[in-house]
Design brief:
Blueprint (H helix, E strand, L loop, with lengths): L3 E8 L2 H11 L6 E5 L4 E3 L3 E7 L2 H13 L3 E8 L4 E6 L5 E6 L14 E8 L2 H9 L4 E6 L3 E5 L5 E7 H8 L5 E3 L3 E5 L4 E2 L5 E3 L7 H9 L2
Parallel strand pairs: 1-2, 4-7, 8-11, 13-15
Antiparallel strand pairs: 1-13, 3-12, 4-8, 5-6, 6-7, 9-10, 10-11, 14-15
Helix pairs in contact: 1-2, 1-5
Length: 218
């Protein structure tokens, strides 16, 4: 089964981004960072989601992100599907923090169950076919609006959503140009998909732990 091993974010300041992601979310090997090389503006066409077990965990992660410098796009609140909020990291990446539960069952933690990459695409049906042709298996789908893929035991899950719909969920305008500032590290080959998202066999960017080692030796 195809897997996603890591995500690489292109950021203006790798040390500042490292501090944010380790302080706010406790991320490590799932995320890599490298200096941004191409201009970008507006919505970058994707969001990252941390899926947690209860509302208290959502609040804990949102509060930690804001304390570390994130901007609140949507305050944490109940919805039809559960409980969640949206923040934008200092590097511009949009993060959804969500739980399908509306009630707490224990003390708050900052642990998360899943890291999900949601790609905002123009044509969900065509993009689904593109990825199925490259070996991914559909795990769940809702017509032409949303598709979730089975990615095995990899640390990152993958889903497709209509770009305008994803921007609405994130609380931002769908307009945006330039680089996505994202590369996906997987085992299905190196390519660029229909919407300009880049996949790499072996990302050259360092993990957060490797960046920390470099900071300590300076």
């Amino acid at each position: 089964m195809a897997t996603i091993a890591s995500l690489t974010l292109e950021v203006a300041d790798t040390e500042a981004a490292h501090r944010f992601y380790t302080t706010a979310f406790g991320l490590d090997t799932q995320l890599r960072l490298r200096p941004a090389q191409a201009p970008t503006s507006g919505f970058r066409g994707f969001t990252l989601s941390l899926v947690v077990s209860q509302p208290a965990d959502v609040n804990a992660l949102v509060d930690a992100a804001v304390a570390a410098g994130a901007t609140t796009l949507k305050p944490a609140a109940k919805s039809l599907w559960g409980y969640g909020g949206v923040v934008q990291a200092p590097d511009g990446t949009i993060w959804q923090i969500a739980s399908s539960s509306k009630k707490d069952t224990g003390p708050a933690t900052r642990a998360f169950d899943e890291l999900v990459l949601l790609l905002g695409v123009e044509d969900v049906t065509a993009s689904k076919r593109f990825y199925v042709d490259r070996g991914l298996t559909v795990a769940k789908g809702f017509g032409s609006k949303y598709v979730e893929f089975a990615t095995g035991t990899g640390p990152v899950k993958l889903a497709l959503y209509k770009r305008r719909g994803l921007a609405k969920v994130a609380g931002v305008s769908p307009e945006g140009t330039g680089s996505h500032c994202l590369a996906v590290g997987g085992d299905i080959g190196s390519f660029t998909d229909r919407d300009g998202f880049v996949w790499e066999d072996a990302p050259a960017a360092p993990t957060l732990a490797q960046i920390a080692e470099g900071i300590e030796t300076k």
